[in-house]
């Protein structure tokens, strides 16, 4: 069980990011990959918002990873390339959440989403723990 912190503590947001990441890594045999990718997107979003909190920067309540990263750009050190790649996760929060809007997620896209989400969560955690 994860230790709980105040919502204003970036460690709570990292915990939430890990919780979403763990749900994203669930056995895909009994769920849609779209749903797992949504959880990967949530892990990325919460991890990035933990960085905002760490630096005392206000953030909008949005699922748009590109918007969040553009607000961070220039306020903290250079963003790693894999963090920039996470902008592609936005589609998992919007387009793939409901049937018929986008084509089903393929296994390869799911696996890549998990790899990027893990890297972003680890990156954010390293910043929070500085």
| Mean pLDDT across all amino acids | 94
Helix fraction by DSSP (H/I, runs of at least 4) = 55-70%
- Shape estimate: globular
Structural class by secondary-structure content: mainly alpha
Q: Under CATH, the topology is which?
A: Four Helix Bundle (Hemerythrin (Met), subunit A)
What is the helix/strand order?
Answer: HHHHHH
Number of strands: 0
Largest sheet: none
What top-tier CATH class fits best? Mainly Alpha
Unreliably modeled segments: none
Cα radius of gyration in angstroms: 14 Å
Helical region count?
A: 6
**What separation lies between the terminal Cα atoms?**
23 Å
Indicate how many domains the architecture comprises.
Answer: 1
* Name of the CATH architecture: Up-down Bundle
Amount of beta strand: under 5%
- Classified in CATH, the superfamily is Nucleotidyltransferases  domain 2
Structure description:
With 130 residues, the protein is mainly α. It contains 6 helices and no strands. The chain starts with 9 loop residues before the first helix and ends with a helix.
In short:
59% of the residues lie in helices and 0% in strands. It is an all-alpha fold and 130 residues long. The longest helix has 22 residues.
List the helices and strands and how they pair.
Layout: H1 10-24, H2 33-54, H3 65-72, H4 81-85, H5 90-94, H6 107-128
